[in-house]
Amino acid sequence: MSNLSRKTEPRTGTVDAVLALLAQVCMVVAGILLVALIVIFGWLVFGRYVLNDTPTWVEQAALLMVVWITFLGGAAGVWAKAHLSIDFVREMMPPAICVPLRWLAVIGVIVFGAYLGWYGLELAQKTWQRSIPMLGFSEGWRAVPMSICGFLSVLFSLSHLAALFRGEDPAEG
């Protein structure tokens, strides 16, 4: 059982089921892109050392894929509460300090996600007219996953915030 599904099993309700599905879709897409990344690097090595003809598009495609993998995985990590955090410091505190710090952490992710989503969208719009060299895709496709990650992080964190309002401990969910 994956970390993502194990962490989402205790949650109930239609909204949480939809959010869990969104997180799972992010992980599946990131996984497919990771396999594709490995394949194109295999093609790069084959082209360079066997055919003596290096495919020039591989570097740009790899950069684009890495951005998508990173941000989609990051959004799913927010849902699974597997994102970068220093929980052990907070959990060592007495409950009077620990509980407000949990609220603060979730609110911090919401604020960060909102900025990431908004400015990722703005960056995508500003770069949409430019083309990625060697690929011919819009440069805006490099910023789209940033925006997706930001907005999904907000949604996922709002679910965590709702769990706090219900008196549940999202750190255990």
SSE order and pairing:
Layout: H1 3-8, H2 14-49, H3 57-79, H4 87-91, H5 95-127, H6 144-165
Helix pairs in contact: 2-3, 2-6, 3-6, 5-6
Account of the 3D structure:
This protein has about 170 residues and is mainly α. The longest helix is centred in the first third of the chain and has 36 residues. Helices cover about 70% and strands about 0% of the residues. The radius of gyration is 19 Å and the shape is elongated.
User: Rg to the nearest angstrom?
Assistant: 19 Å
Q: Could you give a short account of the major beta sheet?
A: none
In the predicted model, the low-confidence regions spanning at least 5 consecutive residues are 5-9
Overall mean pLDDT stands at: 88
Derived structural class: mainly alpha
Number of domains: 1
In DSSP terms (H or I, runs of 4 or more residues), the helix count works out at 6
Query: Which shape, going by the Cα principal axes?
Result: elongated
Output the helix-strand order: HHHHHH
Percentage of β-strand residues: under 5%
- What distance lies between the first and last C-alpha atoms, to the nearest angstrom? 16 Å
How helical, in percent, are the residues? over 70%
As an assembly, this protein is single chain
Tell how many strands the DSSP assignment holds: 0
Pfam families: DctQ
Function: Part of the tripartite ATP-independent periplasmic (TRAP) transport system.
Domain Tripartite ATP-independent periplasmic transporters DctQ component: 37-166
InterPro entries: DctQ (IPR055348), TRAP_DctQ (IPR007387)
